[in-house]
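Appendix C. Worked example: Cation antiporter subunit
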Amino acid sequence: MKSFLMHWVPSVAWLTFVWCALWQDFKLPNLAMGILLSLLALAVFKLPTLYLSNHFNLWYALKFLVYLVWKIAQASVQLLWVAITFKHPLNNSIIAVQLRTSSDLWITAISHSMSVIPGSVVVEVDRTISVLYFHVINTETEEEINDFIKQVRTVETMILKAVGSREEYERILDDEREEVAL
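Step 2, the predicted output written as structure tokens:
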């Protein structure tokens, strides 16, 4: 019973929400249909189990949200400036970033968060070694490339502090202590 609650209930809730959002109707009959279809989908398609960390830090989640909105605004202004100054040619880069997490869920969250920020998009994910490859606009110098890698690391750190497992949270804190010591 606990396994059902831990693994099916979040999936049913999420699939039901998606169903209702797609129909733009959260009335009782549509909710019931969403629950029924969610249960049917989970029974027929045997979706992989989603393991949640049971760790949520509201403070770090809010910090991440503010940081993400700030980076989206900042990158939008930078891209606007690049577009109106007609600087040609642009020097773009493919940048590989090694992540500290190996969780598919967090790799996906990090890649989507970075892709929402204008000027960069994930072009490849190597799950076996936890590397994301980004196409980044207007990166001319080694310093700009390192700044982008630092930005990805910051997003990863914020996500793992907000919702990562205890082990990932401790690993992030250990890495931060090592960086301070250097």
